[in-house]
Amino acid sequence: MATVVPSWCLNTGGMEEHAEQSANKVVVTGGAGFIGSHLVERLLATSPAHVVVVDNLSRGRLAHLGAHRTDTRLQFVKADIRDPAGLEAAVEGAGVIYHLAAQSTVMGAMHDPAHAFTTNVIGTFNVLRAAVRCKVAHVIFASSRQVYGEPIRLPVEENDPLMAINSYGASKVAGEAFCRAFRREFGLHTTILRFANVYGPRDVGRVIPLWVDRAAHGRVLEIYGGEQIVDFVWIDQAVEALVRAVVLGSSLPPINVASGTGTRIVDLARRIAALASAHVPIAILPPRSVEVTRFVANVDRMRQLLQIEPPLDPLVHLPKLLSPLAESATRAGVVAPAASAPTVSSVAALDPPRRGAAAGRQLEAHAVGARRVSKRGSRPRIAV
Ligand SMILES: NC(=O)c1ccc[n+]([C@@H]2O[C@H](COP(=O)([O-])OP(=O)(O)OC[C@H]3O[C@@H](n4cnc5c(N)ncnc54)[C@H](O)[C@@H]3O)[C@@H](O)[C@H]2O)c1
C-alpha cells in the first residue's frame, strides 16, 4: 500500500498544533483537485475554519491552492487515503471531513478498475474508520450520478434504484453503502451528495474542459454516440451544496446536486463551437458502452433541504471558460479569426482510422429541436 509522504505545509505549524483547534478544523480529502480546491477557497474565505487538505496529487495540483499559501489556516498534507495511518494523523482533531479524494472519472476507472476500487472503496472505508476513531462529527461524501447507471426514468429521484454500469459508479455505490453502515454501526454522521456533471475552472480531462481547449485551437469536437443528455452543474453550486450540507445538519438523506435540466451533448458542442473565436468542426464517433446515455436529476430535495435554486440555463457560466483560452489561442495565431457557425462533419472525413458504425452520420440528423418543459420537477427539463 502507498506510503505517507512527509507533510508539505503551507503554514508554519505542525499537525499537533492543528489538533488543538478541533472545533474549527475541517479536512478536505482531494482538496487539491477540481471541486476540492474551490471548496477550500470557499471555506477559507467565509469561515474561521482551519483547513487540512489531504491529497496524493495524483490528479490534484498544489498550484490550485497557491493563492492561499500564506494563509496560516491552510495546511497541505501529501498523503494517500489508501494508507490508514497517514489518514488518521491528518484527521485527528477535526470536526468535519469533506471526502472528495477519488479516482474521479468513468474512463479512468475503466482503464484501471483495481485502482478505482482501492481508492474509492477501501479509501472511503479508511476515511470513515479514521473519522470514527478520531471522533469526527460529520463526513460529507462526494458521490456521483453514476450510482444510478442508466436511469429507469427521467428526472432521476434519489430513491430510484442504484444500478451502476461502470466501475466508477459501482465504487461510489459501495462508498455510499459504507457511509450508511458506519452511520448505523458507529453513529457516525454521514451525508451523501450525488453530483451530476460539475464544470468550472481547474477541471481537466472531462468533456467541457476538453472541448473548450479543442475549440480554442480550432480543433474538431468529437462526440461519442451523440445521443447523450447530460445534467451540468456549475462549480459554485457544487461548493454551495457541500457547505450547506454541513451547516444544515447531520441527518440529511442522499441529495442530487444538479441543475435539473438536461443538455443534449450535441447542443453543448454547438454552444462551445459558437463561443469560440474559431471555426470548430463537430464529429460524431461511435458510442462508448461504459457511458450512461441520459441523465437529468430531480432536484426537489436539493431545493427543499439545501435551499439551492439552480439556474434555468445550466450552461450560463460557459462563456467564462471560453474567453481566456479563445483569446490566447487567437493571439498565438492558432485559430481562424472569425467566429462562425459550427460545421458538422462525418467521422469518415475527419478521422479515417477511427471509422465505425456511426461514421458518416451527420449531426443534423439528430433533430435535436430544443424544448423546455414548463412544470419544474415533474418532467425532465431539456435545455435549449
Ligand atoms: N467533477 C465532477 O463532475 C464530479 C461528478 C460527480 C462526482 N464527483 C466526485 O467529486 C469528487 C471530486 O471530484 P473532482 O472533479 O474534484 O475530481 P479531481 O480528480 O479533480 O479531484 C480528486 C482529488 O483526489 C486526489 N486523489 C485521488 N486519489 C487519491 C488518493 N488515493 N489519496 C489521496 N488523494 C487522492 C487527486 O489528486 C485529486 O486532487 C470525487 O470524489 C468525484 O468522484 C465529481
Strand content: 15-25%
Q: Could you give me the name of the CATH homologous superfamily of the largest domain?
A: NAD(P)-binding Rossmann-like Domain
Strand order in space, largest sheet: 3-2-1-4-5-6-11
Distance between the termini: 48 Å
Work out the helix count: 12
Low-confidence stretches: 1-21, 325-378
Sum up the overall morphology in one term.
globular
Q: How much helical structure, as a percent, in the residues?
A: 25-40%
Order of helices and strands: HEHEEHEHHEHEEHEEEHEEHEHHEHE
Specify the structural class. Answer: alpha/beta
Mean pLDDT: 82
Question: Which compounds are bound in this model?
Answer: nicotinamide-adenine-dinucleotide
Radius of gyration: 21 Å
DSSP strand tally: 15
Q: How can the largest sheet be summarized?
A: 7 strands, parallel
CATH class categorisation of the largest domain: Alpha Beta
In the CATH scheme, what's the topology name of the largest domain?
A: Rossmann fold
Count of discrete structural domains: 2
Question: Would you identify the CATH architecture of the largest domain?
Answer: 3-Layer(aba) Sandwich
